[in-house]
Write a structure and sequence with these properties.
The complex is a heterodimer of chains A (about 220) and B (about 400). Chain A is of the alpha/beta class. Chain A is built from 7 helices and 10 strands. The chains are: A alpha/beta (about 220), B alpha+beta (about 400).
Amino acid sequence: MNEIFCSNVFKSFVSKAERLDVLRSLNLSLPASCTCAIMGASGSGKTTLLSLIGGLEGFDSGEIQVGAHKLHTMDEKKLAIYRSETIGFVFQFHYLLKDFTALENVALPAYLKGAEKKKAWEKAEALLEKVGLADRKNHFPSELSGGERQRTAIARALVNDPILILADEPTGNLDRHNAESVAELMFRLPELSGATVILATHDEALARRAQFVFRLSLGSLEAV
Amino acid sequence: MLASAGIAAGVAALIAVVSIMGGLQKGYIDAILEISSFHVRVVLSPDTDPIIASEKIKNVGGIVSVLPFQETTMLAAGPGRKTATMLIRALPDDAAERDPSMMQALNFKTIETSLSDTRIFMGSEAAFQLGIGEGDSLELLNIVSDDQSGILPFSTAMQAGPMFRSGYYEFDSGMAFISSKSFLAASMKGKPWVLGIKLNQKYRDFQAKNQIAAILGSDIVSIQTWREYNRSFFGALRTEKTVMMLLVGVIFLVVGMNIFHSMRRTIASKMQDIAVMKSFGVLGGELNSIFIMEGLEIGIFGALAGFAAGMILSSNINEIIRFFLNLAASLAAVFQSLGLKISQYTYQRLTTSYFYLDKIPVSITSFEIFFIIASAIASSVFAAFLASRKTALARPSEVFRNE
């Protein structure tokens, strides 16, 4: 059975002026613990697709299934639980909470999910060590470099043992050196955590390192 | 912190205002019950002997005193042709023994030995208006009527006895007491006798009313409890207090709006963090509760601080006013010594000569305190709730898209 399954997904944005069909009859099917890159021009709908798979946004029609979770049948509360238990997000901007240290930022999702504080902190510490930031755990985001912030964000995405990591332009805001270290980490995630990684990028070189590469164009995916 | 300070100021102001208003009202209500309306007021039929009727009911459970009297309004004229209308009450000679608390309320200790056929005991304000002192003579004019002669004026001279001062202008300026054996009391012949009854618990008035009505039966023309007798006046007092609370309570509206706007600004600046938290699986309601808890914290902290400040202010209001009056007087003296005249008025202490009251009475009930504190906390929580609604509606994907 496939881990990620999208069938005939339609998504449009309606404003007073116009109706914008972003995804049109989109289909996708991926096995567990793989890496997948979605390429496409700016505004092609990459971020929207990740938002739909991540349960951050509803879709007009079609089906999306991640593991045993059928998103098209879930209400807001179930989607929140789904996000908490199944998904790890890595955004283009790190979106770390600026008043919290790296350790606290990583531990927070686990703590909010209901983990004991001590266990959440221990797990966060272990993850920071895995991403090479053990010695930066007590630093605030403002005291970390761009690459370190993004690696902290990756550790945060892993803290609840998700089966799927959704990364939206994870290296888009980094210099070459930092982008390389983050990319290397991203593609090691299936091996590190067993999770599937879907990343949206318009960096062709980065995308080609993934096991599956798709191009999103005119609302549909085509294998590259 | 500023929001809590606003709540605290509102609570302190409301407690101080309501306690002073309550003190003034309570003092007045107590005086009314002691001097004017009693707890139960029975108007007897013309054939009923008031003393016998008093004896019949004096052992009813809860009755502390029964005072029979007649009263009517008369015109009094002093030596300088100054006149005043007064409610003249004719009392039995043993009135002080029958109703000692009324004498206490009047601050009047001499009546028990002084009631006589020729003396009238009036309030100090009435005496001042008539321009008379103790021992002076005054004319009293009553209107009497009978079947044979029709309506006739009845006039007699009486000597002013010692004056009483209850502390309430209405009584001190418009009431006087005479002996029921006096010549003037004879002019009240057609007036009904009234029994003024006091109870050990004023809220057992309806129970006492039923018992008294059962005992006296047809001897009664009318019987009213203090709540019935003063219904419209106490209703007006209650309305006055409610309106005052609403007016001062506007502070909470202002503070609530302040909390609402500052929290909205905070939420707008934290929208990115809120979106990230939602992406972790935190529900909108859970995020709302963070802000509502913050509102609750602001409300509780402010209300408790305001409660403490309000209680300190209320219980020391006389010292505080005295301090400020003294300060104003001292500053005025300093300015005057420097040759600067800052006002055509002089600063006076809180004395009965100028303000009628020599101290400000204070009274507040636990219900009023509870209501004020609950309103303060509710305004803060409600403002936080309104401000945080946006967090529940925020969609992470939109927030990230707009970044």
